Amino acid sequence: MCEPCHSIVQYPNSDDDDRSSGTPVEQHVSRIGEWFRKIGRWLHLSKMGNGHSEAIKIAKLETELWLPTPTYYEVDWWRRYVHLDGGFRSHFGRIGRNALDMYSAENLAANRNLRVVLQEEALDAAKQYANACSIGNMTTFRRFLTTSLQKTQTPLKYVQRFELMLTRAGRDLLAKKMKHFQLNRRVSAETIERLTKGLLWFTRKRELLIPEWADDKGLWVPQKPCW
Questions:
Q1: Can you state the percent helix, strand and coil of the chain, rounding each to 5?
Q2: Which end of the chain is more exposed for a tag (fewer CB within 10 A), N or C?
Q3: Residue 78: CB atoms within 10 Å
């Protein structure tokens, strides 16, 4: 689906050698900049206002063929839900590569169990990353929405999903405000700025938001910054 979801690219981060500068994977993935983050044994990156493939291209990783295959996640930010996009593909280098017993029933069963554990661990890390970048609190979400609207080529998609964050009263009010915008064509930076301010206004009105956003007190008075 990609946009307007928050698209997350995740790599496993493991190496047998001790490196003060980080693993080879980390050294390359960290070039993405401010949206790169390491959580546990996993590396994450994303590019707001773009999908998975764009995030990888921006990081210039598509030519690094030795990198492990990433796992993709999507964050349905309007309902605060993180899920896999496709299959779980990330793996660590030595899992299941013992040539003496890799095809034994015992080894295959152990690898399946290990894969389940890794998948759960990876999903939890992706959720932590999503909280840090897009859905962890209202300040984080406003930053995500602002950045995404500035970068995207399809602002209407964000408005359509933002509508799902609102109660009926909120949707009716949004519909009235949207009459002043024409987002089905190329829009100016000034229009995006006005649109962003209009949407951010709703994020300060708890009574106009659905329970996923309105009822979680931690979103409104976070104990500490997510990032």
A1: 50, 10, 40
A2: N
A3: 20
Contact 200, 154 (CB under 8 A): no
- CA 170 to each of CA 156, 166, 179, 203: distance values in angstroms, whole numbers, following the listed order: 17, 5, 15, 11
Residue-by-residue DSSP string for 28-97: HHGGG-TT-EEETTEEEE--TTS-HHHHHHHTT-TT-TTSPPPEEEEEETTTTEEEESS------TTTT-
Is residue 72 very low, low, confident or very high in pLDDT (cuts 50, 70, 90)? very high
Q: Are 166 and 202 in contact (CB under 8 A)?
A: yes
Owner of token pair 């995006």:
192
What confidence category does residue 75 fall into, taking pLDDT thresholds of 50, 70 and 90? very high
pLDDT for residue 107? 64
165 CB-near residues (< 8 Å, 6+ apart): 78, 79, 202, 209, 210, 212, 213
What whole-number distance in Å separates Cα of residue 126 and Cα of residue 134? 12
Write out pLDDT tens, residues 147-195.
999 988 889 999 999 999 999 999 999 999 988 887 766 778 888 999 9
Cα–Cα distance, 180 to 163 (Å, whole number): 16
Whole-number average pLDDT of the chain: 80
Instruction: Name, in order, each residue with C-beta under 8 angstroms of 160's C-beta and a sequence gap of 6 or more.
Output: 4
1 falls in which pLDDT band (50, 70, 90)?
A: low
| Closest listed residue to residue 37, CA positions, set 8, 73, 5, 75 | 8
What is the rounded CA–CA span in Å between residue 92 and residue 103?
Answer: 18
